[in-house]
Amino acid sequence: MSSERAAAIVLAAGKGTRMKSDRPKVLHRLAGRPLIRYVLDAVARLAPARTIVVLAPGMEEVAQEAAGTQVAIQSAPLGTGHAALAAHPALDDLITEDRLDDVLVVFGDTPLLATATLAAMLAERRRAPEAAIVVLGMRPADPGAYGRLVCDKDGMLEAVIEAKDATESQRRIGLCNSGVMAIAARHLGTLLAAIGTDNAKGEYYLTDIVAIARARGLACRVVEAPLDELVGVNSRADLAAAEAIVQRRLRDAAMEGGATLIDPATIFLSADTVIGRDVTIGPFVNFGPGVAIEDGVEIRAFCDIAGARIAAGAIVGPFARLRPGAEIGPDAHIGNFVEVKQAVIGRGAKANHLSYIGDAEIGAGANIGAGTITCNYDGFTKTLTRIGEGAFIGSNTVLVAPVAVGAGAYIAAGSAITRDVADDALAIGRAPQIDKPGRAKLIRKMKTAEKLARQKKVQG
Ligand code: UD1
Ligand code: MG
Q: What residue ranges of the chain have pLDDT lower than 70?
């Protein structure tokens, strides 16, 4: 489907009142990515001649997210028809030079739309006898507040009636407006200009252009798409419903790519999570943005991972936390209750229990004992800990950064290491042990006598 003679308008100027949020609705996230990013990506894959994003004044953050497209500002949120009209001047040149056949209008709050569906709408609009408008329809189990598509007996679209304006019988129509429209470019200006505000909300409804086109004898048709694509996010409940769909798609794609998800429903992925082949992910694992997992990695239950790279053959978890900048080397092990941040863990290195490794470089094959802590922060700056290849860090070691432990060095358990340790040296940084033979027996005797004396006092 050639789309170089099509343009897209993305409406995102609405207040999103029902989200009850300080953040613009289209910046709320699904699998870590803003709603509007999904819509812009779906549109971009169609490669239209131009994409216009309609925003309200002051929506700079959204404009940033939409970088690379053209932005039109809707002066006040007077309805979807008014918003589309705000974008119209940005298409003027293409329309007057006859370089445009279709204008697609999509909503910034309908994130799951597929590019193939947009292409199908263009094809349907151009199919002879050409339609002035094609509306994307859906059949939700509960049509609720969606606009209803009123069709004649031949299935031709006559009007879109908003739920608030619908009669009892119109409200019983199951076929609903998803919000996406393909409009003949040459009719766009006149249709938009004819929209009024005589309705329940007193708004300019874009949907009114269908009845306007019909009154002028122009044909309007419907293309239907599966519900999963057309969830409109208006409330936090809608957002959760869309998230569930996105998660299902991401999990399916991971499994399709050769990963085993032991209990997929408990694994939460980000839109950008990259997962290799023969990766196994246990139950209850959460992936924040920026995670890449190479082939053959095992991630055990209850891990929280964000901004981390995990190289082939590594084992992570259970109960591990990898934070941004964690780079886990090939065949390395990160075990339970180990937190890694901004640290490179070398090939085959192990930190199996109860550790914090932050701002560090751990050499290949090093062994980090249970309870090891890198003290990377002095309340003002963060500094680096370097541990050489094959070093052995005894349990309960505190490494006060900046500090370096040489290759092959040994650190005695319980040490506080405040100076660099040379290659192959043994460092012991703890108070020496003092032994007092028989002293425990004496203490026991003394304490028992005291206890008996106290009991006697109470009874007497
Ligand atoms: C709209 C449709 C409804 C459809 C539903 C599908 C109209 C009149 N109604 O209703 O038929 O079933 O979507 O989800 O079109 N926007 C602006 N400027 C405005 C108002 C809205 O840019 O002045 C943008 C919003 O940011 C949003 C989109 O348009 O991305 C839709 O607006 P919204 O208020 O969510 O419309 P619905 O009530 O959901
Ligand atoms: Mg909506």
A: 1
* Enzyme catalytic residues: 353
CB atoms closer than 10 angstroms to residue 304: 17
Indicate the length of the chain as a whole number: 460
In this predicted structure, what is the pLDDT of residue 354? 98
Element (H, E) at 449: helix 439-459
Distance CA 252, CA 24 (A): 30
Least Cα distance to 352 among 398, 325, 319 occurs for 319
392 C-alpha vs ligand 1 centroid, how far in Å?
62
The pLDDT of residue 15 is: 80
What the block records as the tokens of 370 is 């249970």
Q: E strand or H helix at 125, and its extent? A: helix 115-126
Name the percent of the chain lying above pLDDT 90.
Answer: 98
Burial class (CB in 10 A: 0-12, 13-18, 19+), 210: buried
* Of 397, 387, 433, 389, the residue nearest 417 (C-alpha): 397
In this structure, which residues have their CB less than 5 angstroms from ion ligand 2? 109, 232, 234
What distance in Å separates the CA atoms of residue 357 and residue 390, rounded to the nearest whole number? Answer: 17
Give me the residues paired with residue 54 across strands: 11, 72
Quote the pLDDT of residue 1. 59
**Ligand 1 pocket: which of 25, 53, 80 to mutate (most atoms <8 Å of CB)?**
80
Q: Is 178 in the pocket of ligand 1 (CB under 6 A)?
A: yes
Closest ligand 1 atom to 201 CA: 8
Q: Measured in whole angstroms, how far is the alpha carbon of residue 333 from the centre of its chain?
A: 27
Query: What's the CA-to-centroid distance between 146 and ligand 2, angstroms?
Result: 8
At 404 the pLDDT is: 98
pTM score of the predicted model: 0.91
Of 362, 124, 366, give the one whose Cα is nearest residue 137. 124
For residue 64, give the 3-state DSSP assignment: helix
- CA torsion sign, 91 to 96 to 100 to 102? positive
What is the DSSP track for 288-339? -SS-EE-TT-EE-SS-EE-S-EE-TT-EE-SS-EE-TTEEEPTT-EEEEEEE
387 phi-psi bin (left φ>0, alpha ψ -120 to 50, beta other): beta
Per the listing, tokens 């870590």 go with: 32
Question: How far from the centroid of its chain's Cα atoms is residue 428's Cα?
Answer: 46
